[in-house]
Design goal:
By secondary structure, this protein is α+β, with helices and mostly antiparallel strands. It has one domain. Strand 4 and strand 5 form a beta hairpin. The protein is globular.
C-alpha cells in the first residue's frame, strides 16, 4: 500500500460507526493516521526469525472492548500508547521507533 492508500484507509475507518481493529508493523506514522484512537504496542515473534521479537501496533475503534491487562496474544501483554505518543511499554525503546 502507498502512503495515500494508508491515509484513505484511515479516513474511512475514522469515519465509520462500525467497530474495527487494525494491526500494523512498527511504524510511527500509524499514530499520525489514528491520533484519536487507542494504539497498543505488543511484541510478537518475528516471522522470519522466531528467536527475535518484533513490535507491532494494534489500533482500535473507541467502541471495541480491550482486556484490562492488554493481553492481545498469549504471552504478549501490550502497552497502551497514549494519544500524545508517550508510552511506558516494556518493549525495548529501539523497537518502538519514535514512540519511546
Amino acid at each position: 500500500m502507498t502512503p495515500a492508500d494508508h491515509q484513505r484507509l484511515a479516513d474511512v475507518l475514522n469515519a465509520t460507526p462500525a467497530r474495527w481493529m487494525l494491526t500494523y508493523d512498527n511504524e510511527p506514522a500509524v499514530r499520525d493516521l489514528y491520533p484519536d484512537r487507542r494504539v497498543v504496542a505488543y511484541e510478537i515473534p518475528n516471522s522470519a526469525n522466531r528467536a527475535r521479537l518484533a513490535v507491532e501496533y494494534a489500533v482500535f475503534s473507541d467502541d471495541v472492548s480491550l482486556p484490562a491487562d492488554l493481553m492481545l496474544l498469549p504471552r504478549s501483554a501490550g502497552t497502551l500508547i497514549d494519544r500524545a505518543g508517550a508510552t511506558d511499554c516494556g518493549a525495548p525503546a529501539e523497537l518502538l521507533g519514535s514512540a519511546a
